[in-house]
Amino acid sequence: MYRSHTCGELTINEVKQEVTLAGWVQTVRKFGAITFVDLRDRYGITQLLFGEELNTQLDAQPLGREFVLQASGIVSERSNKNPNIPTGDIELAVSSFKILNRSAVPPFTIQDDTDGGDDLRMKYRFLDLRRNAVKRNLELRYAVNRSARNYLHENNFMDIETPFLIKSTPEGARDFVVPSRMNPGQFYALPQSPQTFKQLLMVSGYDRYYQIVKCFRDEDLRADRQPEFTQIDCEMAFVEQEDILNMFESLIKRIFKDVKNIDYTEAVERMTWEDAMWTYGNDKPDIRFGMKIGNLKFPAHTFPSRIAHLQNSLIGVGSSGFPVFDNAETVLAIAAKGCSEYTRKQLDELTEWVKRPQIGMQGLIYIKCNADGTYKSSVDKFFSEDKLKAIADAADAEAGDLVLVLAGREERTRKATSELRLEMGKRLGLRKEDEFKLLWVLDFPLFEYAEEDNRWVARHHPFTSPKPDHIAIMINNNPVIENAEKYLEHPYSNIKANAYDMVLNGNEIGGGSIRIFQRELQEKMFAALGMSEEEALHKFGFLLGAFEYGAPPHGGIAFGFDRLCSILGGSESIRDFIAFPKNNAGRDVMLDAPSTIDEKQFDELQIKLNLK
Amino acid sequence: MYRSHTCGELTINEVKQEVTLAGWVQTVRKFGAITFVDLRDRYGITQLLFGEELNTQLDAQPLGREFVLQASGIVSERSNKNPNIPTGDIELAVSSFKILNRSAVPPFTIQDDTDGGDDLRMKYRFLDLRRNAVKRNLELRYAVNRSARNYLHENNFMDIETPFLIKSTPEGARDFVVPSRMNPGQFYALPQSPQTFKQLLMVSGYDRYYQIVKCFRDEDLRADRQPEFTQIDCEMAFVEQEDILNMFESLIKRIFKDVKNIDYTEAVERMTWEDAMWTYGNDKPDIRFGMKIGNLKFPAHTFPSRIAHLQNSLIGVGSSGFPVFDNAETVLAIAAKGCSEYTRKQLDELTEWVKRPQIGMQGLIYIKCNADGTYKSSVDKFFSEDKLKAIADAADAEAGDLVLVLAGREERTRKATSELRLEMGKRLGLRKEDEFKLLWVLDFPLFEYAEEDNRWVARHHPFTSPKPDHIAIMINNNPVIENAEKYLEHPYSNIKANAYDMVLNGNEIGGGSIRIFQRELQEKMFAALGMSEEEALHKFGFLLGAFEYGAPPHGGIAFGFDRLCSILGGSESIRDFIAFPKNNAGRDVMLDAPSTIDEKQFDELQIKLNLK
């Protein structure tokens, strides 16, 4: 061992002990004949004191930033203590030292506020990983990993490894494929998730499975996606939805406790998908704050349970003579607390904000709820004071608030209102970094309509069970959509799934479902998705086969491990929580991968390029 | 929840409680009006008693093997107890039941001694996994996983995930490659191990890393190899070989304790590679038994440390006038305890055994050490009784033993003698299943000679450091081999590595090394392996670069997790310890993978087939 102690553990208790440390030179400071060195390792920083007698050696072997140094000597009490670090009471009076390795001058400073840009730090990731900020992220990641494993172990879950070289069954996302040299012309696929394997394990009787496992999706990368990502993947047999919700909200609470020392004792809120969309315009609402949406106008079939409400609409914004509302499919309002005194400039800026292409609205209507109870709006000439009050009431606005109204096509308007709500929540300081609010979103639609093919696609995945009450709707109706315009009136659009998402502070951190476990229903599902019997057998014959031999009722969930860590770590970016991430083009710029391969490899794999 | 208890937990303490169980029907037995059902789940088996009143329902819904059943009723004490199972004191007097799912008749019986052949069980792996024998294996695997993680965690190791989509750097084994759609014409590779990443993590200061991680090698599969396999992968910084040996023999001892309840308190034996080859003919000797090799004749340069012994050879078997010995490069002997009375037939059978193509010897010479002190051999006419005694003494034979002698080319003869030793050990019951003997094999050669290219290849991998004393030999000599015939006389053939293997009962369960951590030495190593500077930079530029910024001394080890589990589980086959293994052609016969992919996938990846 090159050291007797780490750089993070020496305190006043070790004074007068002879010790040896090894680590990296953080700083070198010369004061006359004396030299101070801060020596850093994974565990901390310790000050080294080099006396005059070592100057000859120091002159011959000068120390530089990031040199690897081994130093022995006696632990001494510091005259000038540093209360900010655990080792701040002592220093090491060096009697001998050895440079274990030299370092070139690093391309950026190894400090929390580094001077290195993103690209440079990605290229020299091995140096970026030395920074405290990055190290804390990876330590948090490991703590979450450890906590999850402990909880699941204590609850009788078994970690069972599933294969990485599997079969390509593209359905939804694109597979990464791997040419098989031993089976020329054939390919493995990398798993998008261990979904079918964990279901097989339930069929096999391993009634509580988990894995913290890499998954792969060959998608065009958006800002914060990675082609390989990690899931906490779980499945249980002989359970109903309620059992799963209880088991896994306790998992997240345990992680809160172990990793952040947060006692999350309250029950996790639950909300149906319809309520989430209705109230927050979003299926993963941030419920750290209210600012609920007032639904002034909306198309009936999107929210069948609200049809009555629509018909009895008190507000009637759609027949006001104001063309923007009259022509809009949807009119939604939110109230920004205490913002009634926003200036023209502030309102113009907000209007520009909603008109940005990412939000894509035509404009923004406002109603100031003045402190004196009067209203002032951008649509005064179309609406009476009573009408303005009715709109403000629909958004739960009070005197002093600012009501913001968006109008347009249903999907875009609802999304834009949700974005505006989140933006206002941020600006008003309502999205507190140290507050964590969990939410279960339930009762998702089983199907989504795919316009390009005029067919149904699975919203979660093809293995998700309909809600028990809705199974009959699925079985007794033909999935074919006769009239594309009126797909919302097809019975399938109202089938709800036994599916659930866990949302944390406005981010989906996990999702799952109760699965189909009967062959007939699974076949019906494949057919509903437009798969021929032959195709279903080719892709999923093993699963259909397994369902014939006593498949138990089962369900599960998968958490996005990277995302969960980033939220717990208070960061927007999952990349900060991955040791060796890829950039937005799917490249590892440190390795320079992907890269070309040899002729010999092409030859052995019996493939060749076919570049466009 | 479909159950209040599992099928493994009800005992006499629960008698009179009302409970609900769910599981699979193992057996149905009818006695008159009464029906007994054994209900099975992951935790055990519980007997269900269906009284006369349920016969109408049972007739309408007959139960079959592997049906999934939910049954409620009262726990009752059994009149006819079964002491062999934990639930044997009770039975469940069923008051109501529900068939949760039916099952077709399974293609083989779900029992320890199943009637299903290998192929059938692989195709229906989800049913094979139900068998107790397989379940026990996966449970053991999870226990090893858990034990290893706990030990490593307690010793400050951090689980850090390394990427799966990396760069192809074929060196040794073949890479699996993954075409990149976003970077047409370029490929990722799947990692053969996280070797370079864990070294980068050491450079980054994470001084104790571990991962239980999938690795991939596209090799022609031998009997017990898998294209994807799992390693317990570890690395430490600021350590010397001794630190690593101590840390990881304690890991294995901990696993023995946690998983097998074995107190392995003795120090782990250590042996140099030369000693292992000299004494056991093998670099992973099974030291549960002796039967050490007597080296009667051998080529000097293979064992430089034995040259003196050769020159002073007392036995001189090579000038006896017996042409088999005279013409042989190597003559080796072992003594089979108490076998001096082997019959002609037994000796003939042994001779046939060594002549099998897998062993490949021309014949077998024997010397019977008779109980009366005389010798009887197959080469009596060439050797005097004294000479026979000297040979017998070299093999440590005593009266009553049978000495077996093999002669021929060095490599084959040594290997054959090792195989014969293991075979005799097995036949004589010396390789006890419940005995576990660990061994460190040390000081491996750094290089191996590759005849086809007349160059050196790394025996471990190109990142392994020479022993400190041997670094100068490496630096000061030209790696070029002028005379291929005399490669053993090249100074490189005597360089030993700072490498170590852990051997358990004759199986290599782990291996590792102290790594090179200086750029210059790493460059010298790449050059010694015949890599051009350009090639080295293209493949490993990131590592060479990292070594410029303060790389600490470091080293590590990787354990073959599948193999370790199979040995602890007392099986020869790693496949039994993998939930979803592939067959010898690298196929998953259950999934039918690999398989063809769509035109669309070829198109997007911009590759096409080039079948021969």
TrEMBL record, chains A, B:
Its main location: cytoplasm. Its EC number is 6.1.1.12. Gene3D superfamilies: Bira Bifunctional Protein, Domain 2, GAD-like domain, Nucleic acid-binding proteins. One of its GO terms (molecular function) is aspartate-tRNA ligase activity. The keyword Ligase applies. It catalyses: tRNA(Asp) + L-aspartate + ATP = L-aspartyl-tRNA(Asp) + AMP + diphosphate. Keywords: Aminoacyl-tRNA synthetase, ATP-binding, Cytoplasm, Ligase, Nucleotide-binding, Protein biosynthesis. Residues 195-198 are annotated as: Aspartate. ATP binds at R217, D218, E219, Q226, E508, G560, F561, D562, R563. InterPro entries: Aa-tRNA-synt_II (IPR004364), aa-tRNA-synth_II (IPR006195), aa-tRNA-synth_II/BPL/LPL (IPR045864), Asp-tRNA-ligase_1 (IPR004524), Asp-tRNA-ligase_1_N (IPR047089), Asp/Asn-tRNA-synth_IIb (IPR002312), AspRS_core (IPR047090), GAD-like_sf (IPR004115). It comes from the Bacteria. CDD domains: AspRS_core, EcAspRS_like_N. Residues 138-581 form the Aminoacyl-transfer RNA synthetases class-II family profile domain. L-aspartate binds at E171, R217, H460, R515. It holds the Pfam family tRNA_anti-codon. It is found in: Cytoplasm. Belongs to the class-II aminoacyl-tRNA synthetase family. Type 1 subfamily. Catalyzes the attachment of L-aspartate to tRNA(Asp) in a two-step reaction: L-aspartate is first activated by ATP to form Asp-AMP and then transferred to the acceptor end of tRNA(Asp). Homodimer. This is Aspartate--tRNA ligase. It comes from Sediminibacterium roseum. The gene is aspS.
